[in-house]
Amino acid sequence: MTTTGLGGAALGAFRGRFGEALSTADAALDAHGRDESGLEAARPGAVLFARTEADVVEALALAREFRVPVVPFAAGSSLEGQLIPPPGALSLDLSGMTRVLEVRPGAFQATVEPGVTYPQLNRAARTHGLFFPVDPGAEATLGGMASTNASGTAAVRYGTTRENVLALRVALMDGRVLSLGSRARKSSAGYDLRHLFLGAEGTLGVITELTVRLWPLPAARLALRCAFPDVSSAARAATAVMGASAQPERLELMDARGLRAVNRHLGLQEPEVPTLWIELAGASAGALEDVRALCEELCRDAGALDVRVARQPEELEALWRARHHAFYALKALYPGEAFLSTDLCVPLDALPDILTFTEDGLRAEGLDASVLGHVGDGNFHVLFHAPPGSADWARIDALYARLVERTLALGGTCSGEHGVGLHKRRFLRAQHGGAVELMREVKTLLDPLNLLNPGKVLPDPA
């Protein structure tokens, strides 16, 4: 179906309905034409700053009338090109929908608008001794996190966004607003349509409200910093820790390059060797000691060179600040270069295999890249870098394709948490086969004019 974009009558209609909430200012168009993917930016036709669900519904109605593509937008932290608009599109900015509508401590849940960030929700929940555990690092919004099924460092213990969304409201392209899921912790009533929209990247509908699970704040925490001679040894230790039912809160890997970048970026003095960071939590400090001792023993058995323990809140905060700044620290280490971050995930027992395959491939191609990730989930990232237009990019793209092929052969996925967007569409058919056509039928059913974030997720027809 041909779209016309925002011009002439369409732009006038949107401006007549929304007034100053619709912007065509250069600064707004530039800010909404890119994300954190590094892919080429592309300005939308206009930006609409929605404030209510009614704004969203009316914007979709006008988009349907004038055949205008719509790209939902919030924090702008997507990593796979989800937010880059096609020509003439409306960027529908939901970042102003920031109300925490309700916190129900006795039910361990909260209801929020899609522009609420997870730190904002945690500030509201903390007064009740609760927190929302999905922590992707960036100041992401709950709506964006649901749209990509984000996870992050704490998913090994608490699950991804998908496991922590109980209910949501979604505005469809045909004017309906659906309430999906329920406040109950479980349900066996009918098709689970809620999960259809979690990870759909705004291609099927626009999320306008979410009810999410909250968890009790741990009474006691500590973290182990375990240095290893190589990434493979660290991966074996991670597998052993998970197999021992230690139930870590976080289990993270960073290689020597990543530690070097973080040291320079934050002025730290961490040993610049592959390192596992293991956070444990419990009802008391004493209750953690047996688990700490077990994790230390497992890491030393796997070849750990050194194990240090952080117990004080300021130590823990500094440790996780370093981990969350790794992406930006690595980019700062190579100014002026272009970057590509992979997001692969394998079954946990295949983690040593794929990490060895990765390091062998980097050496064979003569590439410099950093490996880090949420290895308790089998989820890891390779951050490639090279000057824009360099011949290195042909080797990077070829190795990336081989990494995906190997990951899929091991029973893994081309995206553990970042989503598909523009960047990974080419891998979707290799992972899902004929199911891609069923996905396309679902998209056509819910968005027959192909106006919702067109060109994302699904590959071009074969």
Automatic annotation (TrEMBL):
Pfam families the UniProt entry points to: FAD-oxidase_C, FAD_binding_4
SUPFAM superfamilies recorded: FAD-binding/transporter-associated domain-like, FAD-linked oxidases, C-terminal domain
E.C. number(s) listed in UniProt: 1.1.2.4
Domain FAD-binding PCMH-type stretches: 40-217
UniProt keyword annotation of Transit peptide present: yes
Keyword field contains Nuclease: no
Cofactor: FAD
Family matches, as Gene3D superfamilies: 3.30.465.10, 3.30.70.2190, 3.30.70.2740, Uridine Diphospho-n-acetylenolpyruvylglucosamine Reductase, domain 2 (3.30.43.10), Vanillyl-alcohol Oxidase, Chain A, domain 4 (1.10.45.10)
PROSITE patterns to which the protein is assigned, alphabetical: FAD_PCMH
Chain segments annotated as coiled-coil in the UniProt record: none
InterPro entries per the UniProt record, alphabetical: FAD-bd_oxidored_4_C, FAD-bd_PCMH, FAD-bd_PCMH-like_sf, FAD-bd_PCMH_sub1, FAD-bd_PCMH_sub2, FAD-linked_Oxase-like_C, Oxid_FAD_bind_N, Vanillyl_alc_oxidase_C-sub2
Transmembrane segments: none
Family in the record: Belongs to the FAD-binding oxidoreductase/transferase type 4 family.
Protein name: D-lactate dehydrogenase (cytochrome)
Origin species: Deinococcus actinosclerus
Origin organism lineage: Bacteria, Thermotogati, Deinococcota, Deinococci, Deinococcales
